[in-house]
Design a protein that fits this description.
By secondary structure, the protein is α/β, with parallel strands linked by helices. The protein folds into 2 domains: 269 residues, Aminopeptidase (3-Layer(aba) Sandwich), CATH 3.40.630; 114 residues, Alpha-Beta Plaits. It is built from 10 helices and 14 strands. Helix 1 runs antiparallel to helix 10, helix 6 packs antiparallel against helix 7 and helix 8 packs across helix 10. The two termini are 26 Å apart.
């Protein structure tokens, strides 16, 4: 038998879809989301829900209920700097795209807000909603925390979800460590430029970069046990502007993904040693700059179980699978570092599985069918946590 909250959420399908499509057309980046926050504020105002805006980081918080303990629900709102090629009727045309599904996240939290407003008199405490910017750049959660969103009232536990484009719609996935730590870095190599006909008169930073690239890949294949979890990727290698000259500089940028703190520390140390040793061998100056450093998303096993109970109380036929453990990263980790948290995956795969694509693909599509379940899970999880506490 389906719970009343789930039934109410299913009746909101058209409204949730309309919200999601509107948000999908106005993707914005980083910590500056003026159109997105304006849309969220408009909907919250129509629901008669008071909110606070943090303009310096384009974050919005709203509070429902009063007194007692406080439970935080969080959704991110930012998009990616890529031109959309999905072919959907509501595609964006501003050179940006919600290719990670944050438009669904925002619509889902708005849906939860509407459900919670209807049941506000039943709340045994306080629920805080966080509409967050800057997840893709790993800046938003930090900025929101620094702005004080975990205080006044102080959030004592938190829950967030992420849609998954290659998981069947309305399937739930979870785990103790759903997302990995991410260490982003830039290697700048400075050599000595010269004409291509006289390489002996210069110092070739491209040659040095190639050897560094190979050395870093061998850290994974030769220094890390095959039973460990680590991924090291160089995603940018840039040098020169003409074909007949050795350039002065070369730049490599990459990312390291791990779950264990001790493995992360070892790999960062060995990356640093390898870069400087190889650069010295080829007479090249090398500097390493940190582009980002995000811990893993660590979930409370106890809170995970409580939320699973809430989900099954919505409908005991909802499929929940303990398979959320991926090398992707999430700045919700900065929240999970501070308070007990859970982070689940919500299947959003379209019906035709032959057209499934991973997130961050310009052609990726998501199913609107998952929106009501997402909103109901948020609302039920928060209500139940307050009842237990």
């Amino acid at each position: 038998m389906k719970n009343q909250i789930l039934l109410e959420a299913k009746n909101m399908q058209d409204e949730l879809t309309k919200w999601r499509h509107s948000l999908h057309r106005i993707p914005e980046l980083g910590l500056h989301l003026p159109h997105t926050t304006a849309f969220v504020k408009e909907q919250l105002s129509e629901m008669d829900i008071e909110f606070a805006e943090y303009e310096e980081c384009s974050c919005i918080t709203a509070v429902l209920g009063t007194g007692g303990r406080c439970f935080l629900l969080r959704s991110d709102m930012d998009a990616l700097p890529m031109r959309e090629e999905s072919g959907v009727s509501f595609a964006s045309d501003n050179g940006r795209m919600h290719s990670c599904g944050h438009d669904l996240h925002t619509a889902i939290l708005l849906g939860a807000a509407k459900l919670l407003k209807r049941h506000e008199s039943e709340l045994n405490g306080t629920i805080k909603l966080l509409f967050q910017s800057g997840e893709e750049t790993f800046e938003g959660a930090k900025a929101a925390i620094e702005a004080g969103i975990l205080e006044n009232p102080r959030a004592e536990a938190a829950f967030s979800m992420h849609v998954a484009s290659i998981v069947p719609a309305n399937t739930i996935i979870y785990g103790d460590y759903p997302m990995a730590a991410a260490y982003g870095f830039r290697i700048t190599l400075t050599g000595k430029g010269t004409h291509g006909s006289t390489p002996h008169l210069g110092i070739d930073p491209i040659n040095t970069g190639v050897h560094i690239y190979l050395a870093l890949q061998e850290l994974i294949s030769r220094e890390i046990s095959s039973t460990e979890e680590a991924a090291l990727t160089i995603g940018r290698f840039e040098a020169g502007s003409v074909s007949n000259a050795i350039p002065e500089r070369a730049i490599l940028e990459g990312t390291l993904r791990t779950f264990k703190p001790e493995l992360r520390s070892l790999m960062i140390r060995r990356i640093t040693e390898a870069v400087h040793s190889v650069a010295k061998t080829y007479r090249t100056e090398a500097t390493i700059d940190i582009l980002g450093d995000v811990p893993p998303v660590a979930c409370s096993p106890e809170l995970n179980q409580k939320i699973l109970t809430s989900i099954h109380n919505l409908d005991n036929e909802i499929k929940t699978l303990p398979y959320y453990h991926v090398m992707g990263s999430e700045d919700f980790a900065f929240i999970s570092e501070r308070i007990p948290s859970s982070y689940f995956g919500l299947g959003a795969g379209i019906e035709d599985q032959s057209k499934w694509l991973g997130q961050h693909n310009p052609k990726v599509r998501f199913s609107d069918e998952c929106l009501p379940l997402g909103a109901a899970i948020y609302a039920k999880a928060a209500i139940d946590w307050l009842v237990e506490h």
